[in-house]
## 1
Amino acid sequence: MAHVPLVEVTRGNDVESIHLGSVAVVNTRGDLLYQAGDPNFPTFTRSTIKPFQAAPFLRADGPAKLGFTTREVALLCASHSGETMHIEAVQSMLRKAGCDEHRLRCGCHEPLVYAATGTRPPFGETYNQLHHNCSGKHAGFLACCELHGYPLASYLDPAHQVQQAVRSSVAHFAGISESGLRMGIDGCSAPNYAMPLSRLALAYARLAHGDSDGLYGNALKDLYQAMTRHPEMVSGTGRSDLAFMQAAPNDWVAKVGAEGVQVIGIRSAGLGIAIKVADGNSRALYTAAISVLRQLELIESPEMSPLAQWVRPQLTNFAGLRTGEVRAVVTLEKTH
């Protein structure tokens, strides 16, 4: 199957650009209920798998043993904005793991808060690896090393004990064999995995459901609770995942990934939704996701919710003149 149009971008009264992609909606058994395009498109999961990268640490009762707070558990799953609350929490996590910023191997970039809020960094401001959006995840990797006595320097090596445990966790919750995962290196230098879009949706249906697991105990329940209680730690000011989780508090768990990936787990409906925009453009991603939620009758008036800015974004030029809009055209097909 092929990708289909998800979103159109207009100029004046005409369509100027079209973003193609695919959608998979599954239940907690992995049954495909709705689709658009190719529900089994091999998709690099990017940051959407952070809860499952954290699951081995929770399986070992790491948060309790090292004294991590619920806010810090949420940060294990975060693509955070580099705000003060995030930096201080990562520093706390590292201290509890007997480490500091210099042990991180995620690299450094400008904090995401500036792009999200349309502001500029203060003149002369400098940043370190704590500001990387994945530093909470990496602090979790280091904490897992501390817990088990694993070597620290090589914690991102695919053959390292932590990354082997992560691979097993990702495969387990996605309902796929480890050999079925395709590996690449993520933007933060950690191993990342591609899988059919429908399997990624299944992982989030299971995360939202939060039942005890035979291998991982209450890990998913604890991760879900941390993420939904503290969505500001998972995301940040003006960011989409914060808005999705604020739109349905304690029901939706949402995580965005680079290159046009969005996943949402719906506890009350027992659903997992995974979306991939083929060209990787996030301009289309949130508008498409809101349309999918509306078609599933999970949200009635997104225009009146924290998601309002992404429902049908109006485009303007540098003089402030309206030039067009971003509008969803995705249509779900029922499969069951």
Note: The first strand starts at residue 4 and ends at 11.
## 2
Amino acid sequence: MIRKNTLFYKIAGILTILFLLLAFLITKTSVRLSEDYHNEITQGLNKDVSKYIVQEVQGLYDGDSIVESKMGDLMHHVMATNPATEVYLLDMNGQILKHVAMNKEVKAEKVDLTPILAFISKDGNLYVKGDDPKDIGGKKIFSAAPYIFNEKTVGYIYTIVGGNDYDTLMSEHKGSYIRKIRVQSMLYVLIAAFFVALLAVYLLTRNFNKITAAFRLFQKGEHDARVRGIKHGEMALLASTYNEMADTIQSNIRDLQSVDNLRKELIANISHDLRTPIASIRGFVETLMIKENELNEEKKKWYMEIIIKNVDKLKKLVDDLFELSKLEAKPMPLQQEAIQMAEIIQDIADKYRIIAKKKGVSLNTVYSKDLPLVYADIALIDRALQNIIDNAITHCNNGDVVTLELTLEDNGVKITISDTGSGIAEQELPHIFERYRTGNFLNENKDGSGLGLAIVKRIMDLHNINIGVQSVLNKGTVFFFSLPINQRYKMV
């Protein structure tokens, strides 16, 4: 099983790496500083060694040749002083002329005079390392002094303070010394890391527990649970993300509850509306079957017309329900194009004139022929206009007038559908676009499904435009909305 990269493992890993790194750095730094301290003290104590050698061994070098008999005096003096000391006689260019160095072979032929001259210029009061002739590239503390013959500097005495034997002794004790430093350092680091870890875990878990508590409350159904009091750092970002997520979920829950309530209401209303025509159809069919031989042809025809009328009403209800469901499905793509509203209005008016004439209602159109093209889904706008006009004719009586009007606005064409019919009561006006509204406005429309204006509202929402309505009871109603002008054909 793959172990997940949890917050615990991250913190533990970071603390472990930090602990090891600090322990290594402290140990390394402690050893280096200790060595530097020891070397600086040693160099300071032995800074005049080369001067003593120059005073004791006179006549060794005259600038051209070396007196070999004097080399014995030099070796005797070095062995008597400190066997671990290495002494080198250098010419004015740093070339090694003679040396007294025990055990290891001298590998270098020349040493750099720069640190030597700096040491001499400061009279030995300078911590500096010079070349190690026995180790090419190595550095050692030293003592140096000019070798003078006949009051003239002819070379230099270069003394390595602590040579091979000193290194061997240091190596033997270095391991034990480092182990002691490491144990002490790691102990200090462990104590420090422990308190730092406690503080870090406390700060993290304090805020983390607040977030966890909010999650648990939300899980138990307390959807108002939010994280409070965390304002800085990554935990604040996590808390803010949770709060935004909780707000979104709570909003979605409210929307779902609202949809569920609408669904229940819709099912109840649909059941009622479907039951009425079905019951009517069943009743008249049963009557025809039972009294088939008793009814004359005229009566049978009348019964059949009622059945057909109820079937048409049932079909319209089902069709409107299907269309509304399709419009409310997300996403609903629009097939928008440039359209001429004057042609659409005229076609719809011609279609409904026959229906209006049967009720004694006049259907008029008012528009200018030079109106610009608008941009919309022609099929959906046509359906919305038909629903509004059908609704207007339904609520008109003999002698009433329905008018379709187009007018030009700054950024669009305004479509107005007005009638002189029964109008809508003021208390019902805010609810006319709802599915299955109640009131006289619906009840007077016996042949309608009650979904026509809900379909209109959904079509307008898909086009992102508003539809307005004004009405006075027993005087008439006006519906109006505007469609944007197609930019390609926009009038100058």
Note: The longest helix spans residues 233-290.
